[in-house]
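Appendix C reproduces, verbatim, an entry submitted by the partner laboratory led by Prof. M.T., so that reviewers can inspect both the input and the predicted structure.
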Amino acid sequence: MVKAPWAVACSVLVVLNVAAPLGLPAFAQETDNSAKIRRPLRTPTGSSTDPSYLLGPEDQLRISVWDNKELTLDLVVRPDGKISMPLLQDVPAEGLTASQLAATIQQGLSAYIVNPEVSVIVLQVNAPKFYMIGYVARPGTYPLPGDTSVLQALALAGGLTQFASPRSIKLIRAVRGKQEVRKINYYDIIEDGGEGNYLLKSGDTIVVP
């Protein structure tokens, strides 16, 4: 009568010891639901070289959609500022950063693909562009669409900051292999009929000290 409980206990221990090395659950088997979990939506990514650069016509881009070779393409921004993609057709690109374009494409593809992961890389900058350096709100590289004046360029860059020297702005331009520097007084532009409000050319650099 005393040995019976010990015999039962020993039998249970033997079963547990045999099941454990084999990786078998002793009492219940868990269900693997990992296949049912949707991948988290990742933040679209763009070119890491100059995140502030705004895309323009003739720029060469690489559009990558994770795990989808048909939607991973090298494209050129058309003269009308758009790119053509399967499913989405025409997508506006001009005036957007690479990351903003990636977000636009991701939003459009969400109607066809579950949690699309999109990245946009600028392979080559071919659009006319100018540069803003110094004490402006958004220094960086900007596309040059048509006739753009110094004042318009400053507006695109968010205007002058409180640390800027408005009377000492410089426009640097390459002329026949040499750099030409033009001094600009911001107050002359807005008060004296626009004197110094030059039209920009591709490659111009505006320096706001």
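The chain is about 20% helix and 25% strand. Additional entries are available on request from the coordinating office.
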